[in-house]
Design goal:
transmembrane; 6-stranded mixed beta sheet; alpha+beta; single chain; 2 domains; Jelly Rolls; transmembrane helix
Length: 542
């Protein structure tokens, strides 16, 4: 009887197709997304499926991603969250009010690990794999999910087969019980025969050679009962899922904060291709839309270069990189950042080091700093098994501010501090040479002063990485040159300064702002600043 009840219970839950399913629920008005954290499904050893069918034939989007990205993207957006799954009773859910749609279209995001669209969508996921977050949203950002029906299913392989075995065992046990019961009953009510002749007593005694001893008969009955009991218990364990069987097993959900690497394997090339193609188009359009891919301080330099090229009737183009590497630390929430290395082709290979930030999952990556160094001097990033790169040691991070001060001082007075290598090379000495020319007698200027200080609107010290030989960081120094000409001279400082002039005021003094990006590298306990160029970014008459 117990076995029959277990069989009936198992079949009522999963049916003959071995799938346990929750009743569908309908999304209420206003919700823009359905969210399921795969980690909350309290089972293991099988697959589960989330299905949704749209009302009125609209197209749905379904995708999976890290919880870091989903939390940021849907922050403040009206949504339905599935908080618990009880097969076959219900998918417990709650509605969270918010904005009618995210900041950017769902299908355009680059962090989805899988995605699909359709009037009816479904995603099956392995309950033993690393969990992700599953999102269903309208493909059209102007629509909502009102009227969409949602259900969850779980594959329960083996239950139907074990149920058939259980039914067979139940029938056999029932037949055996009936057989032995009837034998016992018949033996209990049969009348005892009366001996007619006492002299026949000896002849009626059983033959010891042909009958089993009483102990052996009892042992045989005991073995029969044990076999039956074992069959019942084994079948019960199989059907109840307590044995080691290929069916879903209950499990306690382990909800831990999501984290992911800044750049997943294979994403570096895709990022750089999209960036250079966008930059090329923006440069062709005269700089329109530059703020979509660049931020300060780099954007100041690029805008100045566009103005200077226009004045000189030249065309700018994005660099062409043949080798790309990118890496950053793991992060649990936005904003995030990473470094990208792009190496050019040619006889003298150069590597552009980029510092890239991203404010939210809905925002695009923004290049905040970029500087070239010789390719052979580019450090090697070391990533772990998940693709994450460790941040630089604290000693290196603490050295960024003093190094920036040292560079600023050198640009003003030309006196190199021996504690920092690289000052008497590249872009640093190029600026000192330019300053010397302005101060030379042949220039005709009465006075040329320079003031320099580190750029502090971006916290470079919070974004450094560990390398194979030490560490890498970036920085920038801004300088202002004050140039005064004699009263009888006309003020003409050339096309470059004229191109970036911000006013038309008359006067005998001009201020010129310059930008000096650099890369700071630690190797063998030695700090080296590297810079190959600098830029004039603005000028004005005062």
């Amino acid at each position: 009887m117990v076995l029959a009840v277990l069989v009936g219970s198992a079949l009522s839950v999963v049916g003959t197709d071995e799938v346990s399913e929750t009743p569908p629920f309908t999304v209420s008005e206003g919700a823009h997304a359905i969210v399921l954290d795969e980690a909350i499904v309290p089972y293991s050893g099988t697959d589960a499926t989330l299905e949704a069918t749209a009302a009125n034939g609209q197209e749905l989007f379904i995708g999976t991603a890290s919880g870091v990205d989903v939390d940021s993207y849907l922050d403040g957006v009206a949504q339905v969250q599935i908080s618990d799954v009880r097969f076959p009773d219900e998918a417990v859910h709650r509605s969270i009010p918010g904005e009618p749609a995210p900041e950017a279209p769902v299908a355009e995001q680059d962090w989805w690990t899988s995605k699909d669209t359709g009037n009816s969508v479904a995603k099956t996921f392995n309950l033993d794999a690393d969990p992700e977050v599953l999102v269903i949203a309208p493909a059209d950002p102007e629509q909502s999910l009102e009227g969409t029906t949602v259900t969850m299913k779980m594959r329960v392989e083996g239950v139907f087969g074990w149920s058939l075995i259980g039914i067979a065992v139940a029938i056999i046990l029932f037949g055996a019980a009936l057989y032995f019961g009837l034998r016992w009953w018949n033996g209990r009510i049969r009348p005892k025969k009366k001996d007619m002749n006492s002299s026949d007593d000896h002849a009626r005694q059983p033959d010891p050679a042909r009958s089993a001893p009483p102990g052996q008969r009892a042992a045989k009955r005991t073995r029969t009962m044990r076999i039956g009991t074992t069959a019942v218990l084994a079948s019960g364990l199989a059907l109840s899922g307590c044995g080691v069987l290929p069916i879903a097993q209950p499990a306690d959900p382990h909800i831990t904060p999501y984290e992911r690497t800044a750049v997943r394997p294979g994403e570096a090339g895709k990022y750089m291709t999209e960036y250079t193609e966008s930059l090329d188009q923006i440069l062709a359009d005269g700089g329109t839309g530059l703020e979509r891919i660049q931020g300060a301080p780099l954007i100041d330099r690029t805008r100045a270069q566009i103005q200077i090229a226009k004045k000189a009737k030249q065309k700018l183009a994005a660099p062409n990189f043949t080798e790309v590497v990118a890496g950053g630390p793991s992060f649990e929430e936005y904003p995030m950042w990473f470094y990208a290395f792009g190496t050019t082709d040619g006889d003298e290979k150069m590597t552009q080091i980029q510092l890239v930030t991203r404010e939210s999952a809905a925002a695009r990556p923004i290049v905040r700093a970029a500087s070239y160094i010789p390719a052979e001097q580019a450090p090697t990033l070391l990533a772990n098994g998940r693709g994450a790169v460790e941040t630089a040691p604290k000693d290196f991070t603490d050295s960024l501010a003093p190094s920036a001060d040292t560079i600023a001082k050198y640009l003003v007075d030309g006196k190199a501090d021996k504690s920092l290598g690289g000052l008497e090379e590249g872009g640093f000495t190029s600026f000192r040479d330019y300053l010397g020319e302005l101060r030379g007698k042949e220039s005709g200027f009465d006075q040329v002063d320079a003031k320099c200080s580190p750029y502090t609107d971006l916290d470079f010290a919070s974004m450094t990485l560990k390398t194979e030989a030490g560490a890498i960081g970036m920085g920038e120094v801004r300088c202002t040159l004050t140039i005064k000409v004699p009263q009888d001279f006309s003020l003409d400082l050339g096309d470059t300064i004229e191109a970036v002039k911000t006013n038309d005021k008359d006067g005998d003094t001009v201020e010129v702002d310059t930008a000096h990006p650099y890369v700071l590298v630690e190797s063998a306990d030695a700090l080296t600043a590297m810079s190959v160029d600098w830029d004039i970014i603005s000028s004005r008459v005062v």
